[in-house]
Amino acid sequence: MKNQKNNRLYSILLSVCVAFGLWLYVVNNVSQEDSTTFYNIPVVMGGESILSDQNLMITNMSTETVSLRLSGARSDLNKLDASNLSVRVDLSKINEPGERIALSYTPSYPSGVSNDDIVVEERNPSVIYVDVDYRRNREIPVQVKYTGTRSEDHLYDTENVVLDYTSVTVTGPASVVDQIQVAVIEVDLTDRVESFSESLRYTLCDENEEPVDAAQITTNVEQIRVDMQIQRIQELELVADVIYGGGATEENTSVKIEPATIRVSGSDALLAELGETYTIGTINLAELERMSNELTYSITLPDGIVNQTGVSEATVTVRFTGLKIREFTIANIACINVPDGLEAEIITTSLTIQVRGPFGEIDALTEEDITAAVDFTGAEVGTATYRVNITFSEEFANVGAMRTSSVTATVQTAGE
Predict the structure, then answer these.
(1) What are the residues whose beta carbons fall under 8 Å from the beta carbon of 373, sequence distance 6 or more?
(2) Predicted pLDDT at 27
(3) Where are the alpha helices (DSSP H) in 187-331?
(4) In the prediction, which pLDDT does 267 show?
(5) Closest of 279, 284, 296 to residue 248, by C-alpha
């Protein structure tokens, strides 16, 4: 009997506790009305595509977050926080540019919370202001600007630099795009002595090459590849291969080349192979008939070497001093070194030659002091032309024959 009474008492107490708990839940979470302030609620823009169709864009918004004081059932408020709340502004009704255009905004709640169950008691700020401008696209030329100290021994081919983009496309607010006149790439040439190919960033600048605030600008490319040739440059002396003869020696001959030097550029390896002098041609002094001569030679450099002076020809001036030219006719031409079993006959009966030498020796020279001979070493049967060797008596050691003379001769088997 006593146990039954205790069980009954326990059941009554349990029922009272459960009822009190349910009452507290309803009071605190269901039926109780409350209000709460929510901070840092993000602003979402709607109707951007319509704005874009009108070639307009937002350039500034007064705030990206708002605060809302909301009231409603505590159970609904407990479902809300800054991560699932947002407010929406409608841009679709904007049809022209302007500054500080006031827009109202509408709260957006997560699923499970109805707009009808929540009351907005306070907004901060009450409206959102936006700046609107026309959207503009433009092609902007690229300009390379060089800085730093360049090596005097190297050539920087800044005029023929190669860019993979010669212009960039910029898109953004018209008020900003209209300021942009050039995309400047700065290249520091300090300590650069080799050709390079690099992708470099550029700066959008105004007409004075001052940077423009391009935070709202988009471009079609972020970096531009720059290819530049850098070559070593050196002084190259022009020389001629002089063959002395015809009475001309180093003592009585002046050879002057103009220009005496040129500046050339190329790789280190090619310039090392080229050396410090370059031979423009061969001058056989025995073939020059005048006492003063001007000869022109093309300056043709090896592949990979560039003549930076722009001079494509060199003039060689040859002058003879203290020399005189005389003409002699030689009738007696000897045949020497005729191969065994053969005999030679000179068809040319006389030969006119010019000789050159110092005045005294030339004036004293006679035909008897001149020997003309044809060397038939290695000759074969037949008629051909042969070079004539001209020699002089010992006392005329400074006299020489000019040009190369030849005669016609027949070689045949002996006894025919």
Answers:
(1) 333, 334, 335, 336, 388, 389, 391
(2) 52
(3) 268-274
(4) 87
(5) 284
Which pair of tokens denotes residue 54?
A: 């009108």
Q: Which two tokens stand for residue 369?
A: 């002091």
**DSSP three-state, residue 363:** helix
Q: Which two tokens stand for residue 231?
A: 């070559």
SS3 of the chain: helix, strand, coil, percent, to 5: 15, 50, 30
Written as one letter, the residue type at 196 is: F
Angle at 163 between CA 159 and CA 167, to 5 degrees: 105
Q: Which residues in the chain show pLDDT less than 70?
A: 1-31, 416
| 199 burial level (CB within 10 Å; 0-12, 13-18, 19+) | exposed
Q: How far apart are CA 335 and CA 315, in angstroms?
A: 41
Q: Which pair of structure tokens corresponds to residue 271?
A: 């310039």
Q: What is the pLDDT of residue 311?
A: 92
The per-residue pLDDT for range 90-104, each reduced to its tens digit, is 999 899 999 999 999
- Beta strand pairing status for 261-266 and 230-243? antiparallel
Q: Which residue has the tokens 């699932």?
A: 84
Residues 6 or more apart whose CB falls under 8 angstroms from that of 347 comprise: 383, 407, 408, 409, 410
Residue 187 makes CB contacts below 8 A (sequence gap 6+) with 144, 145, 146, 147, 200, 226, 228
pLDDT of residue 405: 85
- Cα 90 from Cα 102, distance rounded (Å): 11
Edge-first strand order for the sheet with 313-320 is 253-258, 313-320, 292-298
**Number of neighbours of residue 393 by Cβ within 10 angstroms:** 13
pLDDT at 251: 94
Q: What is the largest CA-CA distance in the chain?
A: 178
Backbone angles phi, psi at 3, to 5 degrees: -65, -40
Q: What is the DSSP letter of 27?
A: I
Which residue is associated with the tokens 């470099």?
A: 200
